[in-house]
Amino acid sequence: MTERFFAPCPRGLEGALVEELGELGVGGATAVPGGAAFSGGFDLVYRINLGSRIASRLLWQVGAGPYAGERDLHALARDVAWERYFDPTRTLRVDLVATRSPLKSLKFATLTVKDGVCDRFRERTGMRPSIAKLGADVRVHAFLDEREATLYLDTSGEALFKRGYRVADVAAPIRENLAAGILRLVGWTPDQVLYDPMCGSGTFLIEAAQIALGIAPGARRRFGFYNLKQFDAPAWQRLRDTWPRRSLDTPRVFGSDVSQDALRAALANFTAAGVDEVIRIRPGDLLDLPAPAGAGVMIANPPYGERLGEDAELALFYPRLGKVLKERYAGWDCHFITADRRMEKLLRLKAGRRTVLMNGDLECRLFSFRIVAGSNRAPAG
Q1: Which of 13, 17, 204, 267 has the fewest CB neighbours in a 10 Å radius?
Q2: Which CATH class is domain 3-154?
Q3: Continuous segment of H or E residues that includes residue 18
Q4: What was the pLDDT predicted at 310?
């Protein structure tokens, strides 16, 4: 049977997600603001949850219809055959997001959808699921626009950027699916050197190393579809067992950081992610260290504002960074994601591309520079 799905992702990565979904066997995915919509067989639930690095989760559409008020929402939720999808012994959570909805209280709308689900179970089975705010077995997502309500079952459970390998962290980490999406946006491939000189707990490095080795991003975690009646455990196990892996003879993934705490966190995460043998990291400041190779791709989430402190420090740091890039990284493609829109001007380099991305709720820019000695210089003023 053909089912309808929606995969949300960080804003700015919709096109990259559609490209990735095509590689995972999805035909005809359509980019929409905040994600991608597509149709296909239920087997895609397994493949996308296991293999998508960019999606935030995978939602399975189970109901949709017009609404004008809470009564319509309740009827829509009650009319879905929830008993086909999960048992009332499972715990339940309902989340609701709205855009231009005429309803006055989204909290009350959420309760209305929950009541519709529970009333359906009570009418059909004599039982109703218990509600759990944390760790629910089954999650229902409702999306409201001006006139239409759509109901989804969350097949992922925890958000997909939670890969299951992170055992240590530092302040202001970048989310894994945003890091993976940026790697795709900048066109990095495993035959190129990758260097993150401000690696923190190692997110960019781990994503790159797992891509190079063919390690599925969902290989170390559980999923919400385990609790659905449609779950086919043998089919799931066959997919996991046959996922293509690769070897990497020569490490091409490099990192550094000025913080010893960050490097310790990164090393712990490398081991947990199964990539510690293919990443090389070193202590030190980008302003002082030599380039790890003659050419490659640099990608970093540099300090800005809250992470470094005062704007005056940044005004000193970025010009020095621009000078180092010109002197030591000619032939490199360098990419920086930052919320500091002054970065390009302060570097005194002209970006070849500027991409707007959302890092959680924070609007950022991905500045991309092709470093060529003696050129690309922006006016100092």
Answers
A1: 267
A2: alpha beta
A3: helix 14-23
A4: 59
**pLDDT tens-digit series, residues 140-178:** 999 999 999 999 999 999 999 999 999 988 876 799 999
Query: How many beta carbons lie within 10 A of that of residue 85, not counting itself?
Result: 17
Q: Answer yes or no: are the C-beta atoms of 58 and 132 closer than 8 Å.
A: no
Q: Is the pTM of this model over 0.90?
A: yes
The tokens describing 56, both together, are: 């935030």
Residue with the two structure tokens 């529970």: 118
pLDDT of 171: 74
- CATH architecture of residue range(s) 176-218+248-370: 3-Layer(aba) Sandwich (3.40)
Residue 37: CB partners within 8 Å, gap ≥ 6? 4, 5, 6, 7, 29, 30
Please tell me the distance from the alpha carbon of residue 223 to that of residue 87, in angstroms, as a whole number: 17
Tell me what the pLDDT averaged over the chain comes to. 94
Which residues of the chain are under the pLDDT cut of 50?
Answer: 306-308, 378-381
- Domain borders along the chain are 3-154, 176-218+248-370
The predicted pLDDT at position 309 comes to 52
> DSSP of 283-350, one letter per residue?
ES-TTTSPPSSSS-EEEE----TTTT--HHHHHHHHHHHHHHHHHH-TT-EEEEEES-TTHHHHHTB-
Q: Taking a C-beta distance cutoff of 8 angstroms, is the pair 172, 300 a contact?
A: no
Taking the CA atoms of residue 139, residue 145, residue 146 and residue 151 in that order, the dihedral angle to the nearest 10 degrees is -40
Cα dihedral: 204, 280, 186, 249 (round 10): -120
Q: What is the pLDDT of residue 380?
A: 47
Angle at 116 between CA 113 and CA 121, to 5 degrees: 135
Distance CA 365, CA 304 (A): 12
Q: How far is CA 137 from the centre of its chain?
A: 22
At 161, list the tokens. Answer: 């950027």
**pLDDT computed for residue 139 by the predictor:** 98
